[in-house]
Structures are given as C-alpha cells and as structure tokens.
C-alpha cells in the first residue's frame, strides 16, 4: 500500500503553505490531494486583501508573520504577486464601533502595527472618493494592502514541488480508515494512502471532510460575491482598500478598474456559487452611496465564492484531539488568504516539534468549541 508521512487534503493557500513548510523542514514524504486543481477553491475567489488590523492578538501576530513573506515574496519564491501596499482604511459610522476600533488600535500599536486613528478630514485626503459627512472617524494602516492570491498560492505550490512534495489534482479524499482512535489511511478513488498524519485544509468543505471521519468540525460555507468595474479613471489607483464597516462594503483598485463587494447578512449557508443579481444591485447602490463617483462606472463582471465561517470567526488550527494522526487548518472566516504563510509555518512547527513557536496559535485550537472557549474576532468583513 502507498505510504506518506503527511497527507494534506486540499491545495488552496493553506494546503500549499503547509506542504511547503513541512517540505522545507525535510519532513519526509508529503502528498497533497486536491479534488479539483491547485488554487481553484476559495483562494481563487479572494479579493487578495492583506491587513494587520485585527482585534485579536493571535490574528495580528499571524498577519505580522505573513507580511514578512508577502513583502519579500519575489526574493523567496521568484514570482511577482502584485503587492500593493496602499493601506486599509476602515470607515466608522456607529459609536460602538469607534470604541471597539480604538481598543483594537491600542492592541495593534502595542504589537508594532503602524495603524492610526483618522478623523473625517484626513479620510477625505486619503480617499477623496468617499462621502465623509456621516463618518465618526476611522482607522488606517499604510502597511496593509492586497496582492494576487492565485500567483501567491502557485508560488507556494511550485516551491513545495521543488522540495519533493507530490500534488495530485482531481483526486478527492472520499474517506478515512480509522482504527480505535488512530488514523491509519486516507481513502481516494485511486486507492488508500497510509499516513502518519493527515491535515484537513479543505476550506469551505472542511465540515464535509470532517464528516468523513465522523467529526463535527464547525466550518460553515456562506456565499460572498465580488464585482469588478471596467477601467475607471475617476478615482486614483493609489487609494487604500476602503471598508465601510457598518455595511461591510469594501472596494479597492484592481488593474485598470476597481474591485468591490459586500456581505449579505441574511445569506443562508450553502454551496450556491451563482451571483445573486438582487444582491449585486444592493452592493452597487451601497458603493454609489458611499462614493457617488462610481455612478459613472460600469460593471465588467461578478463572481461568487464561499467564506468558511466558524462560530467565533476564527480558524481551527491544530491536531484533532479525538483522532490521533488527524489535524486541521481551516475555517478562516473570510480572512484566510492573508494568513496562509504564517499558518503553514506554524502547522509545520506544531506537527514536527509539538508546539508552534513562530506564533502562539493555542487560542485557535480546534477543541475550543467543545470547551466553550471561543475567541471572537471583531474585524470581519
Ligand atoms: C469573495 C471572497 C473574498 C475574499 N477576500 C479575502 C481577502 O481579501 N483576504 C483574505 O485573506 N481572504 C479572503 N477571502 C477568504 C479566503 O479566500 C479564504 O479564507 C482562503 O482562501 C482559504 O484558503 P483554504 O486553503 O483554507 O481554502 P480553499 O482555497 O478553498 O482550498 C481548499 C481546497 O480543498 C479542496 N477540497 C475540498 N474538499 C476536498 C476533498 N474531499 N478532497 C480533496 N480536496 C478537497 C478544494 O477543492 C479546495 O481547492 C475571501 C473569500 C471570498 C469567497
């Protein structure tokens, strides 16, 4: 029977980063099983935003470590990920958000994040397109930005391959062979692979993969839509990623045009990967309310993807206590692309050394849901 030291389930940013970091540590035979193709899942649908502005220490530290990769990606991986660091600008309209963001800002600055409070007048300078009359203020971090998720993920995959990792596309995991509480093998239509450890990196499908092992992993898929405009010259291409926090509307320059989106709070969970024209209209209306100049923009296209949402909007990273030999890195609740590099490194440390030392990820242990120790992330878009 085929045997691997590590089998990784899913080749999105997480699976590729975990594979790369394990291989970098010479962790033995590593096989990545992907039911579709590399970087075609949620990672392909991401807006590519990367930010340091989180409300929990673990997320800020995961971002800080990931930024070391994003800012030096070309030197390390030899590919240009189109990094634009024009910042993230959060716009606040509710008093309760002002106090929460001021508290997060204090935490961020204590950890070395160069974020700051901005009054409406400075917001107008940073982002001339937005109406500021109803704003109570906002926060801005010039180091934040965005890059290309597909190229970044392929960068990790290519580097992992060069280190000996085997990627198998169109090869879904269909089950697990578990004896007692010990994982023996991962099952695929092409046969079984006996393994020391399997790591579930299945993004929005993590709940489904968990069920194959008899587990209830609390990762729920929610549709999210993004849209891009035709080339649009009326707003400079150097404006920050702009987020109206109350509505979750966001937009940033993308190529010659702009990319924008907004979360529907009434979206039911599920795997419906079609654009809802009604929600598209609502999103365009919200964009034009906040930045009226976009009334003159034309929409080129839209697409839908899935957030992988957990009860506290934070991921499950670590070994699964119930099954020896099974681990998970999933449930990033819409901000997983940006944490890919750090999570891969931490998972490799956890699996090979018994503890992650680059970032203390114990707060995101999968067992916290069973223990009722949730860690709510507030800065979710
Ligand atoms: C519209 C949208 C915008 C977003 N914007 C951002 C953003 O700006 N910044 C950010 O950081 N994040 C963003 N995200 C979130 C981000 O895309 C995800 O958090 C991240 O890509 C998750 O990566 P992943 O590797 O865990 O999942 P995925 O990329 O989904 O990878 C999981 C892989 O597992 C495979 N798989 C599933 N089941 C099986 C199986 N049984 N066997 C084998 N393989 C399997 C899938 O085919 C898939 O390729 C956005 C998401 C969406 C939908």
Which class do the helix and strand fractions yield?
A: alpha/beta
What is the highest CATH level, the class of the largest domain? Alpha Beta
What is the succession of H and E elements? Answer: EHEHEHHEHEHEEHEEEEHEEEEHEEEHH
Under the CATH scheme, the architecture of the largest domain is: 3-Layer(bba) Sandwich
Explain briefly what this protein structure is.
The protein is α/β, with parallel strands linked by helices and about 375 residues long.
Walk me through this protein's architecture:
This protein has eleven helices and 18 strands. It starts with a strand and ends in a 10-residue tail after the last helix. It folds into two domains: 2-48 and 150-219 and 311-371, FAD/NAD(P)-binding domain; 88-142 and 221-309, D-Amino Acid Oxidase, subunit A, domain 2 (D-Amino Acid Oxidase, Chain A, domain 2), CATH 3.30.9.10. Helix 1 (13-24) crosses helix 10 (340-353) and helix 3 (57-70) crosses helix 10 (340-353). The longest helix has 16 residues, at 95-110. The strands form three sheets. Strands 1, 2, 8, 9, 10, 11, 17 and 18 form an eight-stranded mixed sheet that branches. Strands 5-6-4-13-14-15-12-16 form an eight-stranded mixed sheet. It has a two-stranded antiparallel ribbon with strand order 3-7. It is of the alpha/beta class and 381 residues long. The site of flavin-adenine dinucleotide has 42 residues, from helix 1, helix 2, strand 12 and strand 16.
């Amino acid at each position: 029977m085929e045997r691997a030291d590590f089998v990784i389930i899913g080749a999105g940013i997480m699976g590729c980063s975990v594979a790369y970091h394990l291989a970098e540590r010479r962790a033995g035979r590593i096989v990545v099983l992907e039911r579709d193709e590399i970087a075609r899942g949620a990672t392909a649908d991401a807006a590519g935003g990367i930010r340091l502005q989180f409300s929990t220490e673990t997320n800020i530290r995961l971002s800080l470590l990931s930024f070391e990769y994003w800012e030096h990606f070309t030197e390390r991986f030899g590919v240009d990920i189109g990094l634009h660091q024009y910042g993230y600008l959060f716009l606040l309209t509710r008093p309760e958000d002002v106090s929460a963001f001021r508290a997060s800002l204090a935490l961020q600055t204590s950890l070395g994040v160069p974020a700051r409070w901005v009054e409406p007048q400075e917001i107008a300078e940073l982002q001339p397109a937005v109406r500021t009359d109803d704003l109570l203020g906002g926060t801005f971090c010039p180091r934040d930005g965005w890059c290309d998720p597909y190229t970044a993920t392929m960068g990790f995959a290519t580097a992992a391959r060069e280190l000996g990792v085997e990627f198998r596309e169109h090869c879904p995991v269909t089950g697990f062979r578990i004896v007692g509480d010990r994982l023996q093998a991962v099952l695929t239509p092409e046969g079984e692979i006996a393994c020391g450890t399997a790591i579930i990196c299945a993004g929005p499908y993590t709940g489904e993969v968990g069920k194959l092992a008899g587990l209830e992993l609390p990762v729920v898929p929610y549709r999210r839509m993004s849209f891009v405009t035709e080339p649009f010259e009326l707003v400079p291409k150097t404006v920050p990623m702009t987020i109206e926090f109350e509505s979750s509307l966001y937009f940033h320059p993308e190529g010659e045009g702009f990319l924008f989106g907004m979360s529907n709070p009434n979206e039911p969970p599920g795997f419906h990967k079609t654009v809802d024209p009604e929600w598209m209209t609502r999103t365009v209306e919200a964009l034009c309310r906040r930045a009226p100049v976009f009334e003159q923009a034309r929409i080129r296209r839209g697409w839908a993807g899935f957030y992988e949402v957990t009860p506290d909007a934070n991921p499950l990273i670590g070994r699964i206590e119930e099954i020896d030999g099974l681990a998970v890195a999933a449930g990033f609740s819409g901000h997983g692309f940006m944490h890919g590099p750090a999570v891969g490194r931490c998972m490799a440390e956890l699996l090979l050394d018994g503890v992650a030392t680059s970032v203390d990820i114990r707060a995101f242990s999968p067992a916290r849901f069973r223990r009722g120790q949730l860690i709510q992330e507030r800065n979710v878009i």
